[in-house]
Amino acid sequence: MPTHTVWIDPELLLEHESVRVFLTYKEDDYDQGTRVYWFTVNPQCGELDRLCDDQPCRHVFDVRELSTWQPPAQPPFCTGANDTPENHAAWERYREHEYAAMLTTIRTAIERGELTSRGRIAVSEAKNRETTASSVSAGADPLPAEPSITGKDLDHS
Ligand SMILES: [Zn+2]
Q1: What is the pLDDT of residues 43-90, one digit of tens each?
Q2: What does the alpha-carbon distance between residue 23 and residue 39 come to, in Å, rounded to a whole number?
Q3: If you measure from the C-alpha of residue 13 to the centroid of ligand 1, how many angstroms do you get, rounded to a whole number?
Q4: Which residue of 9, 10, 32, 144 could cross-link 22, Cys pair, CB 3.0 to 4.6 Å?
């Protein structure tokens, strides 16, 4: 009997300023559980399958790479003398704080325009785009006095 893989939408983590952020799953396998730090703004794009037209796909991102990421302070690792019930409880509390920090990080990144429904935008790239847009709208002059942004400058991603 052939097996049949059923596509299911990922779980929604949050929606903020009409940007929807979804969970991702280990090897795109729902039964293997979610990735802790990896999210996607496109439900079609996961850890392995990226069914969008963007090359490279920008929809999938690591929350720790956002400029707004501020993790809580970690307790000591549960090894040796620190392998105590108190320290295990401290780690459980840490996971809750970290989860709250991830939500805050993502919301703030959306508010700053770093994370959009099209994916993660590098801060320097967002600046370049603004510069390019303003020089284009200014530009009836075929010989601009200032050097314009060249393809070389934009093509560093
Ligand atoms: Zn994508």
Answers
A1: 999 988 888 888 889 999 999 999 999 999 999 999 999 999 999 999
A2: 5
A3: 17
A4: 10
